[in-house]
Each structure stands twice: as structure tokens, then as C-alpha cells.
Design a protein that fits this description.
Layout: E1 7-9, E2 21-26, E3 38-42, E4 47-59, H1 64-69, E5 85-96, E6 106-108, H2 112-119, E7 124-132, E8 138-144, E9 155-159, H3 167-181, E10 186-192, H4 210-218, E11 227-232, E12 248-249, H5 254-257, H6 261-264, H7 270-290, H8 295-307, E13 316-317, E14 320-321, H9 322-338, E15 362-367, H10 373-392, E16 400-406, H11 408-411, H12 421-433, E17 439-445, H13 453-456, E18 461-464, H14 469-472, H15 482-490, E19 495-500, E20 507-510, H16 519-530
Parallel strand pairs: 9-17, 9-18, 10-15, 10-16, 11-12, 11-15, 16-17
Antiparallel strand pairs: 1-2, 1-6, 2-5, 3-4, 3-6, 4-5, 7-8, 13-14, 18-19, 19-20
Bound molecules: adenosine-5'-triphosphate and magnesium ion.
Length: about 525
């Protein structure tokens, strides 16, 4: 071995080595090893790699008073018998060829080839960031595509503080990496729920610096805007209800949402809800028998039945109590205003999303930021269901589909809420079984602890940006050492912790600015130009 060691293995009574971790001290002159450094151990027989997760400095002295007195109370005075100090590091094993602890061994920085070997495991070819070791060497960190877009796993989660956690940026960088390196055909559908956040993904980000470009280069990605189509429901003037003007519109009629109506009907209690749903299913059957395809025709039919003379509220209309029929009529009539711009009464005003035109390496943004909670929920449910059924039937035009859900905790919280029950179970289903049809869920949220455990249990790759201390206190983070959590709290925007199913330990990676324009950046640039 021609490089100089940076440390020596030591197992003490208080800090023994185990097969999953080892301790080593570093010499006084060593100044680069830090939390997150990857080191290699060699004891002459076997080798292992580890990531430094804890560091502590020790002095031989037990008593702080002695330390002060020996310097005459002056911090700048050096004691004639200067005490010995040492720094001991604890590393979590990343890769090893034995299931035994080290007794002894020398610790080195790995070479570039060795680092590449660590992060370029067989079958892993999608770069999810760049690892920068503290000796200055950088390598792309590759993950296995089948754990990202199926069949082994298909839920990637990105969490971190608003803005500083750079979750959306991380997702867009990862998407550009998947588009650059995936072997199959793959597309992405995302929902814009914040201002103009995702409305300009087709424009290249002009704000990248040399460091960003370097990361793209190392990851072999050409940073550029995506091939994108933006869709939004209509506004009062029949234009797209969006902050961007040149977009495509969609608007649904009865036929398009017939199967989702039970999930948007509301009732005071489960008993009433069941009655309302049953009444709706009967109505749907009758509508189909009578050839009624629009809300206008169905509402007309319902109204005529209600207005027939001689019926009391307890009388039946086609097997349904008149009171329930009336409730159903009122709710369906109210869709017009509750789902304004998204639903239409008339067949000739329907514009469906062109699902069959979804192309390889393209992104669809469905802009719902101007919609209220219930219309948003309907869009999520309907668009996701349409895509899933086409993926299952293999009629989608791509083999793999990525769905990005921002603020996942809002739509899949741990608590039960009847309002979002159907959407949440759909999301759980995607995270658990989407992989078998090539559907992958990328979720982002500020607080991972506020996401349902069924979804968390299916995460195959976790990405953490800068995280608040209060969040880090959740038991979810108990698997990370105190120092690792401290580092996550201090993260800069380009810092992420990557925990991939195939890695034995999480690693720190650098992620660049997004390849495309975010709404907030576009606004800032426009303001700068004006000033
Ligand atoms: N590597 C980076 N270096 C410096 N700035 C970055 C980096 N990545 C992203 N940014 C910038 O940080 C800002 C916030 O990023 P982003 O919108 O991705 O955060 P977010 O976590 O999604 O925020 P929110 O929770 O509000 O959705 C943007 O201006 C973005 O360009
Ligand atoms: Mg965001």
C-alpha cells in the first residue's frame, strides 16, 4: 500500500469494534477526516469500508480544574506538561468481506477506483448525486434502477425544510438523471400545487454555477429544460386556470368522472353515506340504460322525478327514498360551482387529457394550484387512476411512469380522514404495488414523520435535505447517530443524505441546482432584470 494511513483501529472497553462498526484514532497531524468521510480498513487479511458517523476528542486529564490551574488560568499559556489528546472516530461499515469485528488494522482514504467500486455496485447505474470525500475525491453515487422505478421497489421519498431542504430541486435533478440513464421508456406526471413552482420545467435553469455543472458532468447528465406539457382546468373566461398562459386545458363531464363520484359525495355519517352511494350506483345504472351521458341530462332526469306530484319524502323513486334522491340531486347540482372550471354539465365542453400522447422522456405538469381541496383531490384520483389502468393494460406509450406528489403528508397523513381516505389508499397501493406495473411514486414533504407508516414502509430510497431539530427528534431518525443528525441540521442547500435499499449505510451526497427553471427562481431573475 503506497498511501499513508490516516488512522489505526482501536477497540476499547467503552467503544468496542463490532462487525457493523469500527473505531480508529487519527494522528495529531490529521486534519481532513470528518463526519461523512469514507475510509478503508486493512488488517493484512481482510478489508472493509466505513463511513464516519461519530468523532470524539479525548484528553488524558480527568479534571477541568487541573487543566486550568496548570496554565495559571490563562487560556493562551501552554502547560509545560501539555496533556496528550487524541481524536477517535466511529465508522459504520459500508462494505466488508467478513462478518467479524476488526482487532487491529490501518485506516486509509480509499482511492478513486475503490470509491467507484463502492458506489457503482453491479446493476446500479442511475447517479443520485456525487459523493465528495474529505480528501477531495468525488464520485457519482449510483442507485439501482429496479429499486427506483420497479420491480424491486418504487417509492422514493424526499424530505427537508421548506426552501432550504431543496426537495423539488432534488427531485428534478433525479428525474433528469433517470431520463439520461434509464434503459426503458419512462415519463413523469407531476401536479403543480404551489404558485408557479413547476410551470416552467421546459426552460433551462440559467442560474447554475460551475459547481452545479461539475456535478452534472460527473453524473453524465446534460442539464436542460424538460420536454414538457402543461395542463390546467378552465377559468371563467374559458382559458387555462393557471399562472402560465400558453398551456393546454382540460375539463371533465359526467362520463369522465362517473366512477369517482362516490368519493366526492358527502354525508353526515357512514350510514347516510352508504345510502347516498347506493342511490348513486342505481342512478348510474339507470343513466347508462337511458343513454344519459352528461350532467345536464342526468340532473334533468333527477329533477323531473323529484317534481312528480303526489310523492312524500318517504316514498320511493326507482327504489330510493325521495329524501336521499333529493340529497343526491342537490350535491350533483352543486358540482357546477364546487368544481367550477374542472367539471362541465355539457358533453360538447369536455376536453380530456390526451393520455395516449404521453411520450418517452417527457413531463406532464397538471396545474391545480388554483383549485380548492376537493377539486384537487378529484384531479389526483382521476389522473392517477387513468394512468395506472393504462400502464396495467400496457397502452400508455411508456413502460415506466413516475408520479411526483409534493406535500405527501397532506394526502397521506398517519391519521384517518374520510375526506382523503380513497386518495390515501390509492397512494399506499402505488407505493406497495406500483412497482409491479412500472409505476413509481416520488413523494416530497417537510416532515417525513407526518406521512402514513404504510407508505414509509415501502420506501426504497430516502433522501434527506436540511431537517429541523424537532423533526429529527422523532423515533424515525433513531437509526442515525447524534452527529449525523447534527450534520443534517446544518446542511447547506446542496447537501443531502441518501439512504438506498442496497447500501449498508446512508451516505452524504451533493446535488446541484435543478436543470430547469423553478417558478420562484424565474420570478427572482425577472425582478433582478427590472432592478
Ligand atoms: N444545490 C443548490 N445550491 C444552491 N441553491 C439551490 C440548490 N438546489 C436548489 N437551490 C435553490 O433553493 C431554492 C429552493 O429550492 P426548492 O424549491 O427545491 O426547495 P423546496 O424544499 O422544494 O421548497 P418548498 O418546501 O417551499 O417546496 C430554489 O431557489 C433553488 O434554485
Ligand atoms: Mg418544493
Amino acid at each position: 500500500m503506497d498511501t499513508k494511513p490516516v488512522g489505526t483501529i482501536i477497540g476499547t472497553k467503552g467503544r468496542p469494534n463490532t462487525p457493523s462498526e469500527f473505531n480508529f484514532w487519527i494522528p495529531q497531524s490529521e486534519r481532513s477526516v470528518a463526519i461523512g468521510t469514507i475510509v478503508k480498513v486493512n488488517d493484512g487479511m481482510s478489508e472493509a469500508y466505513g463511513i464516519v458517523e461519530d468523532m470524539a476528542s479525548y484528553t488524558e486529564i480527568d479534571d477541568a480544574l487541573m487543566h486550568q490551574l496548570s496554565r495559571g488560568g490563562d487560556p493562551e499559556t501552554t502547560s509545560p506538561n501539555k496533556e496528550q489528546t487524541t481524536i477517535v472516530c466511529r465508522a459504520r461499515t459500508l462494505k466488508q468481506d467478513m462478518d467479524r469485528p476488526f482487532r487491529e488494522g490501518l485506516v486509509y482514504y480509499p482511492t478513486l477506483g475503490e470509491l467507484n467500486g463502492l458506489f457503482n455496485l453491479e446493476g446500479c447505474r442511475i447517479p443520485f448525486g456525487v459523493f465528495e470525500n474529505t480528501d477531495g475525491l468525488s464520485v457519482p453515487v449510483m442507485v439501482n434502477e429496479s429499486y427506483i422505478t420497479g420491480f424491486e421497489g418504487a417509492h422514493v421519498n424526499i424530505s427537508g425544510m421548506s426552501g432550504l431542504g431543496t426537495k423539488t430541486s432534488a427531485f428534478l435533478f433525479l428525474l433528469s438523471s433517470i431520463f439520461a440513464h434509464s434503459r426503458g421508456s419512462v415519463a413523469c406526471v407531476l401536479f403543480n400545487i404551489k404558485s408557479d413552482d413547476l410551470l416552467y420545467l421546459d426552460e433551462t435553469n440559467p442560474g447554475m454555477d460551475a459547481v452545479d455543472r461539475d456535478i452534472y458532468k460527473i453524473c453524465k447528465i446534460r442539464p436542460a429544460g424538460f420536454k414538457a406539457r402543461i395542463f390546467a382546468p378552465t377559468d371563467i373566461l374559458e382559458r387555462g386556470n393557471s399562472l402560465r398562459e400558453d398551456i393546454e386545458v382540460f375539463r371533465w363531464g359526467y362520463a369522465e368522472i362517473a366512477r369517482y363520484i362516490p368519493s366526492i359525495l358527502k354525508a353526515g355519517d357512514p350510514d347516510q353515506k352508504e345510502k347516498l352511494d347506493t342511490a348513486y350506483y342505481d342512478l348510474a345504472r339507470m343513466s347508462s340504460e337511458k343513454g344519459l351521458t352528461s350532467f345536464f341530462n342526468i340532473l334533468e332526469f333527477m329533477r323531473d322525478e323529484l317534481l312528480l306530484d303526489g310523492r312524500g319524502w318517504t316514498d320511493l323513486i326507482h327504489g330510493t327514498y325521495k329524501a336521499t334522491w333529493g340529497k343526491l340531486y342537490n350535491q350533483m347540482k352543486g358540482f357546477d360551482s364546487k368544481y367550477f372550471g374542472l367539471l362541465t354539465k355539457y358533453d360538447d365542453e369536455v376536453v380530456e387529457l390526451p393520455y395516449d400522447e404521453l411520450e418517452d422522456r417527457s413531463v406532464w405538469v397538471v396545474d391545480i394550484q388554483k383549485l380548492g381541496f376537493y377539486p384537487r383531490k378529484l384531479v389526483f384520483e382521476k389522473v392517477i387512476s387513468e394512468l395506472v389502468s393504462r400502464l396495467e393494460a400496457k397502452t400508455l406509450g411508456v413502460d415506466k411512469l413516475i408520479i411526483f406528489m409534493d406535500e405527501l403528508n397532506k394526502y397521506a397523513p398517519p391519521s384517518h380522514s374520510t375526506d382523503i381516505a380513497s386518495l390515501k389508499s390509492r397512494l399506499i397501493d402505488i407505493s406497495a404495488r406500483g412497482r409491479s406495473v412500472g409505476l413509481s411514486l416520488f413523494g416530497a414533504e417537510q416532515f417525513k414523520s407526518k406521512v402514513d407508516a404504510n407508505i414509509l414502509g415501502n420506501i426504497s430510497t430516502d433522501i434527506y435535505g436540511k431537517t429541523k431539530e424537532a423533526e429529527l427528534m422523532d423515533p424515525l431518525y433513531n437509526k442515525f447517530s447524534k452527529e449525523l443528525k447534527e450534520k443534517m441540521r446544518r446542511f447547506k442547500k446542496d447537501d443531502k443524505l441518501l439512504d438506498h435499499e442496497l447500501f449498508d449505510a446512508p451516505v452524504f451526497v451533493k446535488m446541484p441546482r435543478p436543470p430547469c427553471m423553478l417558478g420562484s427562481d424565474r420570478m427572482r431573475i425577472a425582478r433582478e432584470v427590472v432592478v
